Amino acid sequence: MCRWAAYIGQPCFLEDVVTRPDHSLIHQSIQATECKTQTNADGVGLAWYDHRPVPGLYRDTHPAWSDPNLKSLTAQVRSRLFLAHVRASTGTATSRNNCHPFVVDNWAFMHNGQVGGFEKFRRRADMLIPDELYHERKGATDSEVLFLLGLSEGLDERPLEAMEIVVGLLQRMSRNKGCKPHIRLAAAFSDGEKLYAVRYASDDHAPTIYHRWSKSRQGRAVVSEPLVQTERDWQAVPPGSFCTFTETDVEIQPFRPLL
Amino acid sequence: MCRWAAYIGQPCFLEDVVTRPDHSLIHQSIQATECKTQTNADGVGLAWYDHRPVPGLYRDTHPAWSDPNLKSLTAQVRSRLFLAHVRASTGTATSRNNCHPFVVDNWAFMHNGQVGGFEKFRRRADMLIPDELYHERKGATDSEVLFLLGLSEGLDERPLEAMEIVVGLLQRMSRNKGCKPHIRLAAAFSDGEKLYAVRYASDDHAPTIYHRWSKSRQGRAVVSEPLVQTERDWQAVPPGSFCTFTETDVEIQPFRPLL
Amino acid sequence: MCRWAAYIGQPCFLEDVVTRPDHSLIHQSIQATECKTQTNADGVGLAWYDHRPVPGLYRDTHPAWSDPNLKSLTAQVRSRLFLAHVRASTGTATSRNNCHPFVVDNWAFMHNGQVGGFEKFRRRADMLIPDELYHERKGATDSEVLFLLGLSEGLDERPLEAMEIVVGLLQRMSRNKGCKPHIRLAAAFSDGEKLYAVRYASDDHAPTIYHRWSKSRQGRAVVSEPLVQTERDWQAVPPGSFCTFTETDVEIQPFRPLL
Amino acid sequence: MCRWAAYIGQPCFLEDVVTRPDHSLIHQSIQATECKTQTNADGVGLAWYDHRPVPGLYRDTHPAWSDPNLKSLTAQVRSRLFLAHVRASTGTATSRNNCHPFVVDNWAFMHNGQVGGFEKFRRRADMLIPDELYHERKGATDSEVLFLLGLSEGLDERPLEAMEIVVGLLQRMSRNKGCKPHIRLAAAFSDGEKLYAVRYASDDHAPTIYHRWSKSRQGRAVVSEPLVQTERDWQAVPPGSFCTFTETDVEIQPFRPLL
């Protein structure tokens, strides 16, 4: 598993979401509470939108809690839309290219969960990536494939449908060649305009997603687990949901991949 | 805190102690049981004696559990005497020079514990290191200072007395300038001939040390916590002890630093 | 480009080939003389055969010249057959899984050179890797593909023919989809019994390979460039050659891939 | 040796100085032209002033040319005052804490050059650092000491005099205990308001410093070597100079340390 946190709204320092809260993402890298793996120390990553259409990207393989670059970056960079992730590997190597978020052009994508038995059919999954996107396939994770296939299925024009197709595809491959649980997915992604999230599983254990509007910051945090555990107004996203967050709104639709 | 494991006896593969047992050092890097910090992921190190008087040394800053080099090395290298360590930083940076074991000439040293408030008097501690040893002061840990001061006080000729002097010195400095707990120490060190260990604290919480003779391997493991939790014949070293392990024997003497 | 050095013969310390000579592999990582890239600082790797059928493997992403683990390992480990490599990336990321040598079971493989325009047809090349070997495809280099395809074409039974097929295949793909120079190859690989090397190019610039029998060591070094530049008895391997080195002999056959 | 580049003026993207020019700092990490060491691949660092009094700091141990984080950061971050450095170690370990720039509170400092035989009197140099600054002594470089001693001698109130004292001090120590050349110094540092630089040597080989006002950017670059080698209007700073750069001006005074 992994833990992640995202934000969309008025610009704020990345640290307000990533490092400063009581149960910040850094704290969750040491001691997550709603996660199969308490420790998420196989890498860290940040993607943030600022002056350019393409986001900035910082990824490293060390645990987040001791990363001085992360500490400094989050204290210095302000952004209206960003994604942050701490990794617990489900098998693949610890390397920068296996850390999230993944970035292709203006899209950033991160994932918590797994595709069951992925290593058994990784080749077939890789083969579904079209030629023109294959140069973006740099690592060996199921997460990177979810993202690249999503892009090839039309993440730009119809993100919900694209992800339904892709998740359905990988779920089916796992049923044929992989193992249970076939898919568990809490993903967040953005094109720099909107922030999207999906919560889904082939069984009853879809990894959690919460969100909360902050009056003081005038923005919304979307997270794996609440950043301040005593705050009672974190809203849980139901399993089987596709969320679209704008600067001020949230829309939740059913997420029903092809089985 | 940290966790460590050492071995002296007939040559065996490092993995027999470091990676293969149920509750190996790798397992303890993820989930230690008798340790304040469950996770020990701020680096890993191995020192092993083989063809040369000076030991081989491997240290890296990544968590032990995902380190492919560690896995391969421990599976390939055989040694009659080795030290292995997984680190949980007590404040200093994650860097190779702050990982244990430390090696100076034929001596290797590793430590679990801390000197209370060390950062407040690090300068005074550094100042005690004689000119001829200062080039070996490469990091900023209290552990490296314990070692270098031990060497300067005569670790070669009289290891017990040398460590009593040094531990007393740092304990006193902590009382003057630092904070409680003044010192907690479970250290293991070797000159390539014998293996030494010290268990001591200024309060009631000296980090644990156990040892066990293996008939099959014809050697002895000396560890922070038993490598196989169901094995009942691990012998606990009492607090306030100085141990001398040879290929076949163990001698335990009282350890009484100057207060 | 990259630089490499290998050895087969009576056991010797790795450092005798990798770090100690005047123009050692470490020196070549800073200042190669017969190489397009003078600096080869995108990673380092060692594979050595000792107690086990599978070799030990050490790989890191930092330049070889400052790597303390490499220094220590090469001074401590003795082996009768080993491969060492310093990397200059031709485009792919700096990560452990893109460093050489690559190891699959008892085979180790390293490469200097490139497949022209590989990134344009990487997907098709990856597709040729059979299911049962795909889990070994961990990075994105052309070198790793050369190796995995070689294994799938029968490196075990008929190494020369297997490599002729594979090199021919990639050469043709480069002609169709890639760019000039289509392939330049100086590769060394071993199954733990014999050491093989291939020198080939689709143009006139096949990267160099030399070898030299050492009377004192009773073994043979096979290298990109002579380890001691004043030694006159390094024998150059002609382009279009497939070499088989045993503990005492060398056999050189023509290497003629399908075009 | 090392190479560095700094900027002060109207905000611009870091990449305009660090990565984009023909002979950018990245290019100089591979192939410097006015430097003893052509390759400067023992680490990279950026310090930049933006929303806060303290600068952001990014440092890593890998060569600059392959660092994806550096590429992304410099493309995304805009700043009115920043320092960037690529390192060639003069002996100390490759670790983040030995990379430049060094940051203490609002001060950032970087250095190209060395103190002759520093390792022989490092202890005495370390001992000059006052208690209240010693916690900032994290590595083992002469550069970090130059900085910390400069701070203790009054870098805040009288930067020129402070550096004259410190350089004189270390020059004298090198004469007593070290070796020739006693000191070579091209340093740049800032408090977030002004940018300072010093060019000095105890012999005839003070490392170079140039500066150039950019009309388009409305800011000034201060560098080890010109970023675009065909631009003729880079002004060389004479040896024995102390420079003060503001947003629009430059003042150069003689730099005369105590001998």
Please describe what this structure looks like.
Four copies of one chain form a homotetramer. Chain A is of the alpha+beta class. In chain A, 23% of the residues lie in helices and 32% in strands. Chain A is built from seven helices and 13 strands. In chain A, the strands form two sheets. Chain A has a seven-stranded antiparallel beta sheet with strand order 3-2-4-1-10-9-11. In chain A, strands 5-6-7-8-12-13 form a six-stranded antiparallel beta sheet. The two termini of chain A are 23 Å apart. The model of chain A has no long low-confidence stretch (mean pLDDT 94). At the A-C interface, helix 4 of A face helix 4 of C.
Jot down its keywords.
alpha+beta; seven-stranded antiparallel beta sheet; 259 residues; globular; six-stranded antiparallel beta sheet; homotetramer
Number of strands of chain A: 13
Biggest interface found: A-D, 20 and 20 residues
Question: What does the oligomeric state look like here?
Answer: homotetramer
Through-space gap between termini of chain A: 23 Å
Helix proportion of chain A: 10-25%
Task: Output the strand order for the largest sheet of chain A.
Answer: 3-2-4-1-10-9-11
What is the arithmetic mean of pLDDT of chain A? 94
Shape of chain A: globular
Number of helices of chain A: 7
**Major pleated sheet of chain A:** 7 strands, antiparallel
Question: Unreliable segments of chain A (pLDDT under 50, ≥5 consecutive)?
Answer: none
What is the CA-atom radius of gyration of chain A, in angstroms? 17 Å
Q: What order do the helices and strands of chain A follow?
A: EHHEEHEEEHHHHEEEEEEE
Strand content of chain A: 25-35%
| Structural class computed from helices and strand pairing of chain A | alpha+beta
